Amino acid sequence: MLRVATIPLISLRGEVSQNVERVEAWLALAAREQIDLAVFPETCLVGGVTLASLHRRELEALAEPLDGPALSAITDAVERTGVAAGVGLIERAQDGRLFNSYVICMPDGQRYCHRKLYAFEHRRIECGERFTVFDTVWGMRIGILIGADNYLIENVRMTALMGAALLVAPHRRDGVGRESEERIHAVSRKRGPGGKSGRRVANASANAEVGEQSDPTSCLRRWLPARAGDNGMFVAFSEGIDFNNESAQLPAEAAMILDPRGRILAQGTCDSRKIVSADLDSALIDQSIGRQWLMRRRPSLYGPLAHTSGQASIIADAPRVARAGSVALSFAVVGRDRLLR
Predict the structure, then answer these.
(1) For 118-127, 132-141, 250-259, which range has the lowest pLDDT when averaged over its residues?
(2) What is the distance between the alpha carbons of residues 225 and 227, in angstroms, rounded to a whole number?
(3) How far is it, in rounded angstroms, from Cα 212 to Cα 199?
(4) DSSP labels for 306-330?
(5) What are the CA-CA distances from residue 155 to residues 122, 129, 192, 195 (Å)?
(6) CA separation for the pair 126, 93 (Å, rounded)
(7) 218 vs 39, residue with greater confidence
(8) Full-model pTM
(9) CB atoms closer than 10 angstroms to residue 72
(10) Residue 9, Cβ density class (10 Å: 0-12 exposed, 13-18 middle, ≥19 buried)
């Protein structure tokens, strides 16, 4: 049994040290409630600043390496409280590249870092190139997908196929300007389907990130229960907002924990001082319909998924040998674009 908490941290814009202190305070409270893993939002250590508006020097000032002071302080707090913590930051890699990263710090000193696959926050922030799934002392494999990574069904499915029983899905509330929208288009053309379909996917991502004016993450809150049910996995979602943004509204559900059937085990808002937590029973995974059907996949049918839309065709082959008394009438070649309409 694993007890997980999602904490929708209200961060201070650009105040890394104060945000670290807030995380430490929450970890102390989580320890009193015997939480095993606390999930904080995307980029919670740097706050909810709109990264696209930052100059290069300002962005560099917020970034730090994985052995920097902020994560070192979080690691110390994790070891002190015995509560594992997932936190988001802007990572400066050894080669100087910047990533929107999320690190889960374990009480034994281990750290697991995921670099956002679909990063559009700033033109100098690069996209990650790999999925992140790892074993834990609780006997439950954990996968990480940040924000927009969760918009694509394939990303969650790949994480499940790699054995993840719990998906940690941190998110942040952020406005998207023209520069960020163009970045979404560029990322979608590079990483996802191209052509007209690629533009549709890019627009869908932008709309999902911006969302309705009253609720920017309404799409993701609808999609995540489906992702959990489809893949037979637990999901821990945590939303972050900027304390300095006077126009920001508190999300209706800024923290959610879902079971392998897509049901909400626990939920809460940013204005709550109560920890949103749930006990995860791994026995529910094998019992879920999603996991049972996951084991019955037919990979030989899914080749077109690896191709860019417009390049692949789905071919319905006629039987090689017709049975006695039967006639092979025809076969069809249908482009994927037609199937999407």
Answers:
(1) 250-259
(2) 5
(3) 20
(4) GSPTTT-EEE-PPPSSPPTT-----
(5) 22, 12, 11, 21
(6) 11
(7) 39
(8) 0.79
(9) 14
(10) buried
pLDDT class for 45, splitting at 50, 70, 90? very high
Best CA proximity match to 310, nearest among 169, 193, 227: 193
Read off the tokens for 169.
């899905």
Domains of the chain: which residue ranges? 2-297, 303-340
**Beta-carbon contacts of residue 37 (< 8 Å; ≥ 6 apart):** 2, 3, 4, 5, 83, 84, 85, 86, 104, 236
What are the phi and psi torsion angles at 320 (to 5°)?
-65, -40
Strands 84-92 and 98-105: antiparallel
Contact 56, 23 (CB under 8 A): no
| pLDDT of 268 strictly over 60 | yes
Residue 262 CA: distances (Å) to CA of 40, 191, 231, 235, 337? 21, 28, 9, 9, 30
**SS3 of 38, please?**
strand
What pLDDT is stored for residue 312 in this prediction?
Answer: 46
Measured CA to CA, the distance from residue 121 to residue 179 in angstroms comes to 9
How many residues are recorded in the chain? 341
CA-nearest of 85, 45, 80, 37 to 65 is 45
Q: Specify the 3-state DSSP secondary structure of 206.
A: helix
Q: Would the pLDDT of 30 be above 80?
A: yes
108 phi/psi in degrees, rounded to 5: -85, 5
Asked if the 2-297 domain carries CATH number 3.40.718.10, the reply is no
Most confident of 8-17, 25-34, 265-274, 328-337: 25-34
Does the pLDDT at position 95 exceed 50?
yes
Q: For residue 236, give the nearest of 227, 249, 246 by alpha carbon.
A: 227
User: What is the three-class DSSP state of 44?
Assistant: coil
Q: How far apart are CA 170 and CA 145, in angstroms?
A: 7
